[in-house]
From TrEMBL:
DNA-binding region, residue intervals: 25-44
Domain HTH tetR-type, chain residue ranges per copy: 2-62
Protein name (database record): TetR/AcrR family transcriptional regulator
One Pfam family this sequence matches: TetR_N
Originating organism: Kitasatospora xanthocidica
GO-annotated molecular function: DNA-binding transcription factor activity; transcription cis-regulatory region binding
Keyword terms, alphabetized: DNA-binding, Transcription, Transcription regulation
BP terms from Gene Ontology: negative regulation of DNA-templated transcription
């Protein structure tokens, strides 16, 4: 099969999901494609460019998903709803790409048109909501960082929590009464994510 930039990115995403940011190499990508490593450089100049292309793919997917989510909102939707729609779309897109959250978290210096598009649209949403311009950049960056970190935690969670005996549980309740008490709601990840984004929006609204 003909070697193309798209196929190289496909292979890069697959290798990245297995070995992570630090261990990804062009040779491993070439092996995945059953090609010589040197032949990749006709299409991609090196690992940094490959990472940029991979990040761009994830972000473009998230941007397209966000466009659909925004289009589904009624014209009268509040700006908080528009922010929540974009955050939810980014979360789902990161979860659909194995290693996507790790890619964005560990390569913050690798900019891409897709990432810039996500930031640009979120900034426009906040500005149109009347938030002071001097705060919008930090607010948008905080939200995007929160979504990335949330997905990282989701993807790193064990399939099942470690077993805890009744004695261990009682000891935990005694040592950490606030953490183990009703102040920490026992809700699903979807509900937790929605609440967290709404808390951030409440903070953003206080700036105006």
């Amino acid at each position: 099969m003909k070697l193309t930039k798209e196929r190289i990115v496909d292979a890069g995403m697959a290798v990245f999901a297995e070995v992570g940011y630090q261990n990804l190499s062009m040779r491993q990508v070439a092996d995945r494609l059953d090609a010589h490593a040197g032949s990749l450089y006709y299409h991609v100049r090196g690992k940094d460019e490959l990472l940029a292309l991979m990040a761009d793919r994830v972000c473009r997917s998230a941007y397209d998903a966000g466009t659909e989510a925004l289009a589904a909102l009624p014209p009268t939707a509040a700006w908080q709803d528009r922010v929540e729609a974009q955050a939810a779309a980014l979360r789902l897109s990161l979860k659909q790409h194995p290693g996507g959250a790790q890619l964005l978290a560990e390569s913050p210096g690798v900019l891409s048109p897709g990432a810039l598009s996500l930031m640009e649209r979120l900034l426009r949403t906040l500005l149109d909501a009347g938030l002071p311009a001097e705060h919008c950049g930090i607010a948008a960056d905080t939200l995007l960082s929160h979504v990335t970190g949330f997905v990282l935690q989701e993807q790193n969670q064990p399939a099942a929590p470690p077993p805890v005996t009744a004695e261990q549980y009682a000891e935990l309740c005694e040592r950490f009464p606030l953490l183990m008490g009703p102040l920490i709601p026992r809700v699903g990840q979807d509900e937790k994510f929605t609440r967290s984004v709404r808390l951030l929006c409440t903070g953003f609204a206080a700036l105006s």
